Amino acid sequence: MTPPPLTERMLAALETRLHDEVTVLNRPPYGEMYAMMAYHLGWSGDAESRGKRLRPLLTLLSCDSAGGEWEQALPAATAIELIHNFSLIHDDIEDQSATRRGRPTVWNRWGLAQALNIGDAMYTLAFLAMNGLEREALPTERVRTCRRMIEDACLSLTRGQYLDISFETRKSISRATYQRMIGGKTAALLAAAAGAGACLACDSPARIHAFHAFGHHLGLAFQIEDDILGIWGDPQQTGKPCGDDLLHRKLTFPVLIALDESKDFLQLWEQSGTSVEIYLETLESTSARAEAEQTSNYHTSLALESLRNGKPKGEAGQLLVTLAQNLLQRRT
């Protein structure tokens, strides 16, 4: 019998590890804590409610393609997925988002206080999961480097979220400041995911840096793609109305370009009650879409160049390239 594809085996092993780490709460009197985590992780819904498990998959594929054994990276991959989900629980609170992946968010269903606590518990479980690296036959320095990389990414996440929240009270920000924000909020954990996999597989600083840079530029391009789709995306693809980010007056990358370039758009943005249709019509007279696409393409090329510099090998290396291309070609 033909074995399942590599990514299928990786995702199955990851899901088992996630269950193992979270099940510690599935006992009296903490059963509802477990239920809340299981709900957010998508175990009580359809496959869509789980998300893509992108970040841990990057860790496992990076480890394998850099010459390691992907099974040994499972503790780090599990930790990264738990950290990602902790950040989503807290993001939903901070953004007052009532739904995620088509379902009520944790705070919307169980209340603000319990959602904060569950996010904190998930963050703690992430670092308990990472202790599993010490049981693997890995050099101590590789494990130490991996932990430090993930810890640094957690601090970058909070910095990015700080900037994002601070933007809500500002009329405009520079594009450089915006890219610094998404470098923390979106790119930092993707960079750590790929870099952690590589550092568990090899001792080459240059190779580890290449994988980390791959994840960083992947994250920047991914977020700018999301910004483009948030304005011009097909509602059947995005699940949101066309121009949804304009409706919610988000300072996304294309909007910042238009604010810099067009006095007409700036005037509209400073008014209240402007329709999405008028925003879209005015945006079409600017270079906002073209420049945003050009910036996304630039970071895409840097991501793929960095990955080539990391010299990924074998099936996992091919899958990393395919995964990156699929993520970064969502406009077509």
Describe it for me?
With 332 residues, the protein is mainly alpha-helical. The protein has one domain: Orthogonal Bundle (Farnesyl Diphosphate Synthase), CATH 1.10.600. The chain is built from 16 helices and two strands. The chain has a two-stranded antiparallel ribbon. The longest helix is centred in the middle third of the chain and has 28 residues, at 140-167. The mean pLDDT is 93.
Report a brief summary of the structure.
The chain is mainly alpha-helical. It contains 16 helices and two strands. The protein has a two-stranded antiparallel ribbon with strand order 1-2.
Keywords:
mainly alpha; two-stranded antiparallel ribbon
Subunit organisation of the chains: single chain
Fraction of residues in β-strands = under 5%
Query: Going across the major beta sheet, what is the strand order?
Result: 1-2
The main pleated sheet reads as: 2 strands, antiparallel
Class inferred from helices and paired strands: mainly alpha
Give the averaged pLDDT, no decimals: 93
CATH topological fold name = Farnesyl Diphosphate Synthase
| Total DSSP helices | 16
Number of DSSP-assigned strands: 2
Count of separate structural domains: 1
CATH class: Mainly Alpha
Q: Assign the CATH architecture.
A: Orthogonal Bundle
CATH superfamily: Farnesyl Diphosphate Synthase
Overall, the morphology is globular
Secondary-structure element order, as H and E? HHHHEEHHHHHHHHHHHH
The gyration radius over C-alpha positions equals: 20 Å
